[in-house]
Amino acid sequence: MTQDSLRDNIFASRQEAGDFVFDDKVASVFTDMINRSVPGYATTLSMIGVLASRYCKPGSRIYDLGCSLGGASLAMAHQISHRDYELIAIDNSTAMIERLTDRLKSEEHQGLPVTPKLGDICEADISNATVVVLNFTLQFVPLAQRQALIQRIADGMQPGGILILSEKIQFPDDDLNELFIDLYHKFKQAQGYSELEVSQKRAALENVLIPETIDTHKQRLMAAGLKNCDVWFQCFNFCSMVAVR
Ligand SMILES: C[S@@+](CC[C@H](N)C(=O)[O-])C[C@H]1O[C@@H](n2cnc3c(N)ncnc32)[C@H](O)[C@@H]1O
Ligand SMILES: O=C(O)C(=O)C[C@]1(C(=O)O)C=C[C@H](O)C=C1
């Protein structure tokens, strides 16, 4: 078993409440954690690759913002048929960036035009982008900073470029919201997480992962000058949207 495929049992034993952080412990089990925690994650990655190969123009840049271990970056880089682009993968977790840097040295991924960068995506320079990916990242950015980040991204995109935004979402109808959260928890249990793991992780994410409605996301994207914005994938309270510059 490689380091990246260790089983996630971080919330398996009873523990003091504390906020969720992307530290070394999380990074070491992250591939297993996200695969068992986000319904449709593998499909989402694979389709991000399909979208990127359609939109990535020679000589342009791709940004994977909040890249973690580079799941989306690697899916894109392996599906784009040319190498005339620069893929910049940014995360502010040292543990994640170190692991991605190591991953890129492996035989499987060697030579891909991917550059990992440690940094805050809210302060990143974004320019000449034909593809920008926020795959389950914006939800961790403080609400007050989200519009400015989306504007920065829109301003750094080429006309005709695409933003792919995947998020855990909230529903305006309270009953439906509760239903989807309940179904999501059943999905997690079907993935092998216990009730204790589900409830302790939920508490740890409470002040850290702030979901919004699809409508709020669409309005923010459009306010930044993006258009043709819609959902291309959804399962329960997880969805992925596209918006074109
Ligand atoms: C759920 S993970 C993203 C998963 C990843 N995009 C994928 O497809 O596998 C969220 C990531 O966003 C990063 N992150 C959150 N806020 C950030 C910020 N302001 N700047 C850079 N990275 C950030 C976290 O460190 C974490 O690795
Ligand atoms: O486990 C959850 O409740 C999640 O929301 C999954 C989620 C996410 O959506 O970003 C949360 C934290 C990370 O571990 C990876 C996935």
TrEMBL record:
Family assignment from sequence similarity: Belongs to the class I-like SAM-binding methyltransferase superfamily. Cx-SAM synthase family.
Swiss-Prot/TrEMBL catalytic activity: prephenate + S-adenosyl-L-methionine = carboxy-S-adenosyl-L-methionine + 3-phenylpyruvate + H2O
EC number per UniProt: 2.1.3.-
Species of origin: Pseudohongiella nitratireducens
Pfam families: Methyltransf_25
Positions in coiled-coil regions: none
Binding-site residues, S-adenosyl-L-methionine: 41, 66-68, 91-92, 120-121, 135, 202
Keyword set includes Protease: no
GO molecular function, one term: S-adenosyl-L-methionine binding
Domain Methyltransferase: 62-161
Function comment: Catalyzes the conversion of S-adenosyl-L-methionine (SAM) to carboxy-S-adenosyl-L-methionine (Cx-SAM).
Name assigned to this protein: Carboxy-S-adenosyl-L-methionine synthase
